[in-house]
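Per reviewer request, we include the raw input and output of the structure prediction for the construct analysed in the revised manuscript.
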Amino acid sequence: ALLQKALANTKATLGVKHPAYAHQLNYLASWHLQTGNREAALPLAKQVLALRTEAFGERHPRVAESLGGLAALYRALGDKKAALPLYDKALGVRRVEKLEDLLRESFILSV
């Protein structure tokens, strides 16, 4: 009930497109997952991914986090076929992120 109240407050003050709303929604999805209510967590996790992708773009670490979380949820539900492409996409985002970090570091060291 407390998570739902926080989510409602965030929605009222910042709106559903704000990253903080996605963050609160992610907490609610995680709570459902931890309490064994995986079916309730699934639509929330999908919504978090959609909101974060819209807010940050496909190559953002928060999107990779959401992809990995959704993949883990599908795996927990026994749907490995749905989980695998999400894991692959999350890994791809993380690889790009690490490559960008390495390029930034090498540029700084070369100056």
